[in-house]
Amino acid sequence: MTYFAKSSSILLWIFHYHCISIRKMKRLLVFTAVLTAMVLGSCNKTNINPNDPRAVIRIDIDPNSTFYQELNAVGGWIYVKNGDHGAYIGPGSRGVIIYRASQSDFKAYDRLPPNNPDKCCTGGNCTRLIVGKYYPFAKDECTGDSYQLLDGSLFEGTGRYPLINYHAVYDGNLLHVYN
Fold this sequence. Notes:
20% of the residues lie in helices and 25% in strands. It contains two helices and twelve strands; from the N terminus they run ααββββββββββββ. The chain has helices at 3-18, 22-41; strands spanning 57-61, 77-80, 88-89, 96-100, 106-110, 121-122, 125-126, 137-139, 146-148, 154-156, 165-170, 175-178.
């Protein structure tokens, strides 16, 4: 018996035994249909990236200090790896790209390519996303996929997933990057 058939039989039972008016019955039926559509519509999990390393990330930096001079201006970016000035980047991650999108907004992305991350691994050395000459994009030089730093979306290539992003919260003094 399908869900809708069960719902209909339950509604008929309520109507029959509790003498609900036709008007109330219609409202209840519409409410049930809307609720069912919302529940079924929220079950779409096709955009979950199976390549997400789910690594623990804890980075706290002062983006306005001279040490992070690249982040002093809007549009600046840096790479952060495990151990850089107290940063903790757990196993599975290949480092983090931090990008200053505006005076108070930062973006943080994993350097692990989100599509085919192990395609170009040799001797335990695997590719990482590169910004450098590709700015304002991050590029996977193995697959040729390019991603926008502004929002992490795929700009060029055949990949399915956007960049793997982390929370980046700026309190006016320190930038906290975490997941």
